[in-house]
Design a protein that fits this description.
8 helices, binds adenosine-5'-triphosphate, alpha/beta, transferase activity
């Protein structure tokens, strides 16, 4: 298997990790599931600055940029990897740059806000209002290879949609389109 990144992007509670777990089962090769949160949880707690401070923001930015390079590193060695991310525009720009040499299937994981809020409340392990804050930003770039709505489909059904898309080679073009669009924009 040549290197491949499946980049799942959606708000908190949209269902990314549930889909990633199903994908591991459905995909033909031995993929890794590497969510952004896994990298966060590897960092020393005692030495991490307090959440909400500029010092924390700096550490978090380095963590996320490091995460993108971990994805690129795994794929560069020929591995398949499922990433689970809540993208902001500058993180998408960083992914477009560091994953340029890799095949990336960019997946939009959608869910209407009322359902996100319901899930957030039921889970009780995410700060209230997190999904609402992320909602207008996460899909702002507006281009994916494949999209699913987790209020309509189960995690297994979403994973099937994604696996079927991947089974046809050479269809993942969103990162190439987004990179071209970036090159066409005037430099500021
Ligand atoms: N397709 C679905 N239909 C119904 N409920 C779902 C679906 N996908 C996920 N859920 C439920 O929504 C909650 C959040 O799911 P999950 O942890 O997969 O989301 P996530 O996007 O990875 O969240 P986070 O980014 O906060 O870790 C869980 O309680 C899960 O059972």
């Amino acid at each position: 298997m040549s290197g491949h990144v499946i980049l799942l992007n959606g708000t908190s509670s949209s269902g990314k990790s549930s889909i990633a777990a199903e994908l591991l089962d459905l995909l033909p090769g031995p993929y890794f599931s590497l969510p952004r949160d896994a990298v966060n949880s590897m960092r020393s707690r005692a030495q991490t600055p307090e959440f909400g401070t500029p010092e924390f923001d700096e550490v978090f930015e380095r963590t996320v940029r490091g995460y993108h390079r971990m994805l690129a590193g795994l794929a560069a060695a020929g591995n398949g990897v499922i990433a689970d991310h809540v993208l902001r525009p500058h993180w998408l720009a960083d992914c477009l740059e560091v994953l340029q040499e890799q095949e990336v299937t960019f997946v939009g994981v959608h869910c209407p806000l009322p359902e996100l809020q319901r899930r957030e409340q039921v889970r009780g392990d995410r700060p209230a209002g997190l999904a609402e804050r992320q909602y207008p930003i996460v899909h702002a770039h507006g281009d994916y290879d494949v999209e699913c709505d987790t209020s309509v489909h189960s995690p297994r059904e979403c994973a099937r949609i994604i696996a079927d898309f991947i089974a046809t080679p050479n269809r993942s073009e969103a990162f190439r389109r987004l990179n071209s669009a970036k090159d066409l924009r005037p430099h500021q």
